[in-house]
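Here is my example:
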Amino acid sequence: MKLVRTVVFILLFIVVMAIYLFQTRLAREALTYVPDEVNRGVVLSREDAIDRVELCDHVRKTQITLQKDKGMWMLETPVRYPAEGRIAEGLLAAARMVSKQPRLRAEKDWAEYGLEKPELEITFGFPEKKQVTLQIGAPTPVGKSVFAKWDIERGYFLLSSEMKSAFQQSVYGLREKRIFRAPAGAFRKIFLEMGKSSAEWIWKDGDWYWLEPVEKFGQKVPEGGLNPLLAALQSLHVKEFQDNNKKSKAELGFFMIHDRVRVESEGGKKETFYFGNEVPDQNAYYGLRDGEKTVFLVDRGKVIELFDLLKSVANETARKDIVDQRLTTND
């Protein structure tokens, strides 16, 4: 898991660096061909406390609003739901990068650059109600770039098509999709109830111990024995949100007694996930987080994986107990 995560971070770093280098090259080429540069009205830095982002795609006819409150990003429109913080912060990083591009003097009407009626408008708001809007227009005649400008400036600049894509986010892409949001390293207690099977473990003094079932109470889980289960819980994501669901909880399979997973992390924070009925045509199950109203689908394969891992941990603990008993008998 650590290796996969490291590879992902390396790939993301390479992508970001590639975009940065490409943007730098674009800036140099732009100044070479059109040496006139106009005054800048927008320069963003990490010190600028941006707390609102509005993404307006006039081509797709979508509008998405993100709001930061008490350090947490939330989707405000078209639905209200926790946002993926890393993606929201990535939009701010992209805006800071864009604000460093050299401004070029327009030699034609804005319509010629596709900026009279931009395809994309991204507005960044500040606590003091100030805001600036990045406008992205038509592609350049040569190369894979697009024309762009800030709404309060007289000049324009060039952006890579990759940078434009970074701002073309979907509602699903911006939503928080992790079912368990605490990092695995912060898990302190795990409870699973799936059908007739149930189990509970507690983290104590650097090891995991069984709390349930009763016959395993107090037994130590073999070192690393819960790692696959921890990884599975961390990778449990929403497959599809059911925002327009009209069915009752009973119709969805959320009864008083139902399958669930509860994780307690540092500080006593609890997160509970409930399994509902199977949705065969979607190869999924209905899911619901305790305290939230939004119903979603979770991949059927991930649910089966949890069942299998529960059995695997139980079997591994039992096997170790047998080995320990034989060693004790031989002594």
